[in-house]
Amino acid sequence: MSATELIINEKHVKIGIIGAGAIGRAFATQAVRAGYEVVLSNRHGPASLAPLVAQLGGRARAGTVAEAAQAEVVFLALPWEQVAPVAASVSSWEGRLVIDPTNPILLPGFRLAELGGRPSSEVVAGLVPGARVVKAFNTLMPAVLAANPREAGGQRVIFYSGNDSAAKATVAGLLQQMGFAGIDLGLLHEGGKLQQFPGGPLPTLNLLKVA
Ligand SMILES: NC(=O)c1ccc[n+]([C@@H]2O[C@H](COP(=O)([O-])OP(=O)(O)OC[C@H]3O[C@@H](n4cnc5c(N)ncnc54)[C@H](OP(=O)(O)O)[C@@H]3O)[C@@H](O)[C@H]2O)c1
């Protein structure tokens, strides 16, 4: 086990969540259940998150986007068109591990964003200079993601991909603590495309890994 994984497993790590909508809440549910300290943020500000924080319980609290972005692990659960402006509003991304569950869809209209032929998480990586990006949690519907990951004698599969192996080891530890079965798909330009929505073959598949 790597040192990074050890930190994750000991739950000393703080997780910031930027975007507390459907996916941010689902991820927060699992992170809080697993015992992590979680700082949630959104557009409307910390006071608007009081009911959600009360519902989550555990070590959840509300904060500003800037506070959430200071956590070691930042879950970036924003609509695609908000990723660039919000990322630019953060003074420094240096040293963060950013988990990217976004899909490059423009709303309203459900149009595919222009990516210049790149995997969407490479675009995200370019917006958070100094951070290591791991794409994960983008393939399941929020209700599935929030449900108990242990089901029917198996563990729900979460795909992840990224270009930094230490960052992926950290995400693997996080997934393990939450009860998911993580599957490493490789680098962003290969695995990222497999799990990308739309276009990849893996989104919407709700798979269980049976030991
Ligand atoms: N929903 C799905 O089925 C699904 C599945 C997989 C992946 N995804 C991806 O996950 C991402 C989030 O989707 P979602 O369904 O969770 O969206 P959502 O329910 O619309 O929630 C978006 C969240 O982002 C916050 N936000 C928007 N602009 C912001 C800003 N400028 N500063 C700070 N916070 C801001 C919103 O804040 P307020 O609450 O204050 O408005 C809200 O909490 C998207 O990229 C989506 O493609 C979605």
Mean pLDDT: 94
At the first level of CATH, the class is: Alpha Beta
Number of discrete domains: 1
How many strand segments?
12
CATH fold-level topology: Rossmann fold
Helical amount:
25-40%
Question: What's the alpha carbon Rg, rounded to whole Å?
Answer: 16 Å
Largest sheet: 10 strands, mixed
Query: Helical segment tally?
Result: 9
Which overall shape is indicated by the principal axes computed on the Cα atoms? Answer: globular
Query: Poorly predicted ranges (pLDDT <50, ≥5 residues)?
Result: none
Structural class: alpha/beta
* Name of the CATH architecture: 3-Layer(aba) Sandwich
Q: Provide the list of bound ligands, each named once.
A: NADP nicotinamide-adenine-dinucleotide phosphate
The ordered H/E elements are HEHEHEHEHEEEHEHEEHEHE
Amino-to-carboxy terminus distance: 20 Å
What name goes with the CATH superfamily? NAD(P)-binding Rossmann-like Domain
Strand residues, percent: 15-25%
Q: Can you describe what's shown?
A:
With 211 residues, the chain is α/β, with parallel strands linked by helices. It has one domain: NAD(P)-binding Rossmann-like Domain (Rossmann fold, 3-Layer(aba) Sandwich), CATH 3.40.50.720. Helices cover 35% and strands 23% of the residues. It is built from nine helices and twelve strands. It is globular. The two termini are 20 Å apart. The relative contact order is 0.16. The mean pLDDT is 94. The site of NADP nicotinamide-adenine-dinucleotide phosphate has 23 residues, from helix 2 and helix 5.
